[in-house]
């Protein structure tokens, strides 16, 4: 069986193989995994691969590919087989990463401090002062415990001789740790017994240490800065994760980490600087921020001091300089990502640490040095040329690819702009197995690289026992990049004898620290929650209307349709499901344009499956888009339901059949009911939930008002089953009356029955009740707009007023619809257009 597994596994003759030694014998730490694969038939491995893909889709794990024209999100590519590293080898990697992080932190402190390395000639001034990432406003910035580099990642590659080499340092806003954690959570159910057998180390302790360290420095920041309101004894500092927003490549990871660590995920607009102090703009007021864990690039962090950008926070540099906020990593840390520094690190290590580097960097030459430039040109075929500074637009160039005039032109550019280039030795990457299905399933070899992560603590650096293994797209790939479709692996590090690691002293939560409300809910987050509620309800409304209309269209001949069909057609026109290019009908009006059955059916089918027109598919995309802004607010189970719903069944090519379309609509309705169940039974009734609830109620109120206005205008003899079906109330009606629907009981059920979740009165009661809850802490907000209309609704005389041709009833519904729109606008102005009016928005520490 082993021979069959390895039948298509080609060992590299001039490279290192992670799984097999030179004699093609499995290495000791891989044997347990290979034995597991031997005992599993190819069908089992196909199931495992599908489980991984399914879990990635269910969890919504994505990596945004910004080069795509439409900016679509690409599902995260996770291979089912891990990379395994024995503890003896890992101990060497761990020690080298700790040393390197310590060295880079000292260099960063010196470059932005005394600059002794420049004066001693250990660093060329042109390399530092000519670097666009050197931020002069950050000179002499204060750092608690002399830590400027709080998070560090390093890209490693194994050379053909088996040694690990450093390919690049990631010091600005290192990404990938969250993806590594997600990889482990997905792979663990695939190989639970194997993980225990191999004693694979857990990743959770690393993230606890990360969080505890930020809390420690947040308290120091609160105590040592010059802000007027320090933390009270035992209080927790406010730590936020600053993201560029949903369009950034690794937004999923940022939201995942924020949820895992329990941090508010904020954008630049959520923060403001007042008197040198950073505040989070929340519905409860301005809350002081003590630590910013950033994913925004250096130059974009502060549009006032650095570079104009909508992603940053004006005045952030000044606040950090005064010590009132800790920015992790420190502003200006992108300087260390320059590949030009690699060649100077050995001497700097001996000078600053008194020891040689434990792990060398790949051989690197900075062309800004004349001797290095000539050496690079002399052996160009064996090198890869890269930009010296990350801000430069050049791409990596392989010297062996340059021939003729292109080679001459490139050398001329090197001589003209030598400071802009570095050259690195071209290293053949090691390879590891991936599982491939097909006619001959088995193992295939792919080049891999390893990104390792470290975080600073008050007692030194700690390394994550694992990392993000990146996998090349094909057997001949020379570079590893996620932007061009690269895959990933879980990284298994085997444990040594159990060692108790130092843990920061934890405080105990007292009764004074108990929390019953989300006091850090930002205005932007509250607005997104309200619109999430509205979009979820719109999906349900549109899906139910399409189902009602298509049921009649498919099952009732034109000449047999009752007086209700023109009304249903009018509703489809109003919601732009038919004739989207025409002006919607006014309330109560019947369609003036006559559409044939074929035209109506074609339009409605398109509205179900195509996001290019108004309808269910487009609404599902909008729901998913707004949900992407709320990733850290929802549970994993909630997200799985969202992802199932947000993947509309767009049927390419042939026209969908009637059964396919009705199945899509039924599945969408069921998924939306699952989402509603999460909202009603799985979410805490905090401030965020209240805004989401108001959004759902407002949308349902407006929809029901429109539907009932049009129903009142139809012929008295029209069938009312469709109206009850559309309002999800037909079962209630049948149980109560056991008779054909009539106007009086139908209108009573849909207008005034406060026990019916679809009635007008139920929505108004829900909105007013929620607004009253919010008013207890945030002041009144437009309750009067619906209060008087509620009284009118209650005062209706069922015997006299609840009939199909009542003009006053239709007018009341119209006024309710307009009032709900006015209330929505009032909420937006009061809560989402942030102004510090001093009435409800006080600053808190």
Automatic annotation (TrEMBL):
Boundaries of every Circularly permuted ATP-grasp type domain copy: 82-472
Start and end residues of each DUF403 domain: 521-832
Superkingdom of this protein's organism: Bacteria
Signal peptide: none
Protein name: Circularly permuted type 2 ATP-grasp protein
């Amino acid at each position: 069986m082993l021979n069959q597994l390895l039948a298509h596994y080609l060992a590299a003759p001039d490279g290192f193989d992670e799984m097999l030694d030179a004699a093609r014998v499995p290495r000791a730490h891989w044997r347990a995994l290979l034995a597991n694969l031997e005992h599993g038939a190819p069908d089992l491995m196909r199931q495992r691969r599908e489980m991984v893909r399914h879990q990635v889709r269910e969890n919504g794990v994505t990596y945004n590919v910004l080069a795509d024209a439409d900016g679509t999100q690409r599902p995260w590519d996770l291979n089912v087989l891990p990379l395994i590293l024995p503890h003896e080898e890992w101990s060497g990697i761990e020690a080298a990463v700790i040393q390197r992080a310590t060295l880079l932190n000292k260099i960063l402190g010196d470059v932005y401090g005394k600059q002794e390395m420049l004066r001693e000639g250990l660093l060329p001034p042109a390399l530092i002062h000519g670097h666009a990432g050197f931020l002069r406003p950050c000179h002499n910035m204060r750092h608690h415990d002399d830590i400027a580099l709080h998070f560090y990642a390093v890209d490693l590659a194994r050379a053909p001789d088996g040694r690990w080499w450093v390919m690049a340092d990631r010091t600005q806003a290192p990404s990938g740790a969250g993806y590594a954690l997600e990889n482990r959570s997905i792979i663990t159910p695939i190989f639970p017994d194997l993980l225990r057998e191999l004693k694979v180390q857990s990743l959770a302790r690393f993230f606890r240490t990360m969080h505890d360290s930020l809390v420690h420095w947040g308290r120091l920041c609160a105590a040592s800065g010059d802000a007027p309101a320090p933390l009270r004894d035992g209080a927790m500092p406010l730590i936020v994760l600053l993201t560029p927003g949903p369009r950034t490549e690794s937004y999923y990871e940022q939201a995942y980490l924020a949820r895992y660590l329990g941090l508010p995920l904020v954008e630049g607009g959520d923060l403001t600087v007042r008197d040198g102090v950073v505040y989070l703009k929340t519905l409860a007021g301005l809350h002081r921020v003590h630590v910013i864990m950033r994913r925004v690039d250096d130059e974009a962090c502060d549009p006032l001091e650095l570079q104009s950008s909508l992603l940053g926070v004006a005045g952030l540099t000044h606040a950090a300089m005064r010590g009132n906020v800790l920015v992790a990593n420190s502003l200006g840390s992108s300087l260390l990502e320059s590949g030009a520094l690699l060649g100077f690190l050995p001497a700097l290590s001996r000078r600053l640490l008194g020891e040689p580097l434990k792990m060398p960097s790949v051989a690197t030459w900075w062309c800004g040095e004349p001797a290095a430039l000539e050496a690079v040109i002399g052996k160009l075929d064996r090198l890869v040329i890269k930009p010296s500074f990350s801000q430069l637009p050049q791409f990596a160039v392989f010297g062996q690819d340059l021939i003729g005039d292109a080679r001459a032109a490139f050398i001329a550019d090197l001589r003209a702009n030598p400071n802009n280039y570095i050259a690195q030795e071209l290293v053949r990457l090691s390879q590891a197995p991936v599982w491939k299905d097909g006619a001959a399933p088995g193992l295939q070899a792919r080049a891999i690289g390893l990104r390792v992560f470290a975080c600073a603590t008050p007692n030194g650096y700690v390394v994550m026992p694992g990392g993000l293994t990146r996998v090349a797209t094909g057997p001949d790939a020379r570079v590893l990049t996620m932007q061009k479709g690269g895959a990933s692996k879980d990284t298994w590090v085997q444990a040594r004898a159990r060692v108790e690691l130092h843990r920061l002293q934890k405080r105990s939560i007292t009764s004074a620290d108990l929390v019953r409300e989300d006091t850090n809910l930002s205005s932007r987050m509250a607005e997104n929650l309200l619109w999430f509620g509205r979009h979820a309800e719109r999906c349900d409304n549109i899906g139910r209307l399409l189902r009602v209309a298509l049921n009649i269209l498919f099952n009732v001949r034109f000449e047999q349709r009752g007086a209700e069909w023109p009304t249903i057609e009018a509703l489809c026109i109003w919601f732009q499901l038919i004739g989207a290019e025409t002006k919607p009908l006014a309330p109560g009006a019947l369609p003036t344009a006559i559409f044939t059955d074929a035209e109506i059916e074609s339009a409605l089918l398109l509205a179900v499956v195509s996001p290019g027109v108004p309808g269910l598919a487009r609404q599902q995309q909008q729901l998913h888009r707004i949900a992407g802004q709320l990733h850290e607010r929802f549970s994993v189970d909630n997200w799985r339901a969202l992802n199932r719903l947000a993947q509309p069944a767009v049927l390419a090519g042939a026209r969908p059949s009637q059964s396919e379309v009705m199945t899509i609509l039924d599945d969408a309705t069921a998924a939306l009911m699952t989402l509603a169940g999460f909202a009603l039974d799985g979410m805490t009734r905090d401030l965020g939930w209240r805004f989401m609830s108001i959004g759902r109620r407002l949308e349902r109120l407006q929809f029901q008002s429109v539907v009932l206005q049009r129903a009142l205008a139809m012929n008295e003899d029209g069938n009312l089953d469709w109206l009850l079906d559309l309002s999800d109330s037909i079962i209630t009606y049948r149980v109560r009356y056991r008779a054909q629907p009539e106007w009086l009981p139908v209108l009573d059920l849909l207008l005034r029955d406060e026990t019916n979740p679809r009635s007008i009165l139920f929505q108004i009661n829900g909105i007013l009740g929620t607004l009253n809850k919010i008013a207890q802490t945030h002041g009144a907000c437009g309750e009067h707009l619906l209060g008087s209309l509620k009284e009118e609704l209650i005062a209706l005389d069922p015997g006299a007023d609840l009939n199909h041709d009542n003009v006053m009833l239709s007018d009341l519904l119209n006024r309710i619809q307009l009032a709900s729109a006015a209330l929505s606008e009032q909420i937006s102005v009061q809560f989402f257009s942030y102004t510090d009016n001093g009435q409800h928005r006080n600053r808190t520490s």
